[in-house]
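Thread: Newbie trying to understand structure tokens

Hi all, I'm a second-year student working on a class project, and my supervisor (Dr. K.) asked me to get a predicted structure for one chain before our next meeting. I've only ever worked with sequences, so writing a 3D structure as a token string is new to me. If someone could post the tokens and maybe explain what I'm looking at, I'd be very grateful. Here's the chain:
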Amino acid sequence: MSVKLERINSELVRTISEILLLETNDDLLKTITITSADVSKDLSFAKIYFTSMLDMDKKDLEKEMNEASDFVRKFVAEKMDLRQTPKLKFIYDDSIAYGNKIEHILEKIHEEDQEKKM
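---
Reply by user tm_fold:
Sure, no problem. This is what the structure looks like when written as tokens:
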């Protein structure tokens, strides 16, 4: 991936996070954490990965975020100096939950190992 695309991905993450925190009145959107972005080479499309601490179905969260994508895209166009503002598709990022699950399993194994040594 080119340095330019990496810079745009990073800037998208920062800008969208800022928009969700400062420009929205929706409490649901304020709970969203943007984890990464993946913009296409022609800048026409971007996958935006996110997570939330809300105990809500991830499909419902994706639906809510994608319904807000035009709103978010409008602010991205205002805040970022891009020739073309990409169409945004929000995708729930399972990696943090998966990492937490692995960590919990490792802690459990470690505890069981400590008990066997006693």
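A couple of things are worth pointing out once you decode it. Strands lie at 32-39, 45-52, 87-92. The CA atoms of residues 69 and 85 lie 12 Å apart. Feel free to ask follow-ups in this thread.
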